[in-house]
Structure formats: C-alpha cells, structure tokens
C-alpha cells in the first residue's frame, strides 16, 4: 500500500479529547475502524464500548454504516491532500434495568383510542 493512499483519521469524543489516531486506506471498512476503537479504548475513560454496535462514527453530520468503506462513505479523501479527517465518536450508554422497566410502565397496557370529540 503506497503512503499517499493512506488517510489520516482522528477520533474525537464528546469531551473534546482525541483517541486512536490512525492512518488507513480508503478501502478500510467503518466496522474495522470501530473494532480498533473498541480494542484501543483508553482505560481512564468511562462508559467504554463493549461491541462495535455501541459505537457510532459521525463525519460531516452523517452516521457512518459498518458495512461501508471510507471511500463509499463519501469522506473528503481526495479533497484534503495531507489533511486530517476528524470523526466524532458517540458511545451508546449501557441500558440499565430500571430504565427499561420504566419504559414498559409508561406505555399503555391496552390499545386504546385517545381521541377527543368536541
């Protein structure tokens, strides 16, 4: 793989810190990037992702799909010669049992019409 084919990526967390800077090919899948993020997650950070499904990568306001490559995700690869692409990392918070129980209680137990006739 030629060096000029590589894209430099930074991954930014919600608190503004960057993790796992890397150089990769435009043919790299988004899923493999997420695997790298999960494997190299900083130990001092809270809410570490357990699987790649807990991680969302956002670039240019779009959530990137696991099965697509960087090139297919329409990243500005050719437009930034020697530039760095910053992707935002969003971690799905772990679901607690209390939240799921509360959601079940909030839904009506039967299908009822809530129409109001005036």
Describe the structure.
The structure is a single chain. With 118 residues, the chain is an alpha+beta fold. It has a single domain (3-106), classed as Ubiquitin-like (UB roll) (Roll). The protein contains two helices and five strands; from the N terminus they run ββαβββα. A five-stranded mixed β-sheet has the order 2-1-5-3-4, with helices on one face. The model has no long low-confidence stretch (mean pLDDT 78).
Summarize the structure.
By secondary structure, the protein is α+β, with helices and mostly antiparallel strands. It has helices at residues 30-39, 97-106; strands at residues 7-12, 18-24, 55-59, 62-63, 84-91.
Descriptors for this entry?
Ubiquitin-like (UB roll); 24% strand; five-stranded mixed beta sheet; 118 residues; alpha+beta
Proportion in β-strands: 15-25%
Sheet with the most strands, sense and barrel status: 5 strands, mixed
In total, the number of strands is 5
Give the number of helices.
2
Q: Give the distance, in angstroms, between the N- and C-terminal Cα atoms.
A: 71 Å
Derived from helix and strand composition plus strand pairing, the structural class reads alpha+beta
Using the 3D structure, state the CATH architecture.
Roll
Query: What is the share of helical residues?
Result: 10-25%
Low-confidence stretches: none
CATH class: Alpha Beta
Question: Mean pLDDT, as a whole number?
Answer: 78
CATH structural fold name: Ubiquitin-like (UB roll)
Strand order of the largest sheet: 2-1-5-3-4
Q: What is the H-and-E element order?
A: EEHEEEH
Shape: extended
Number of domain modules: 1
Radius of gyration: 20 Å
**CATH homologous superfamily identity:** Phosphatidylinositol 3-kinase Catalytic Subunit, Chain A, domain 1
């Amino acid at each position: 793989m030629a060096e000029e084919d590589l894209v430099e990526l930074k991954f930014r967390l919600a608190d503004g810190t960057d993790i796992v800077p890397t150089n990769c090919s435009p043919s790299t899948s988004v899923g493999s990037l997420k695997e790298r993020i999960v494997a190299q997650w900083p130990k001092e950070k809270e809410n570490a992702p357990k699987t790649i499904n807990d991680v969302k990568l956002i670039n240019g306001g779009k959530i990137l799909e696991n099965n697509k490559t960087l090139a297919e995700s329409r990243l500005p690869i050719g437009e930034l010669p020697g530039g760095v692409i910053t992707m935002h990392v969003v971690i799905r918070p772990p679901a607690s049992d209390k939240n799921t129980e509360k959601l079940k209680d909030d839904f009506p137990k039967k299908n009822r019409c809530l129409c109001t006739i005036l």
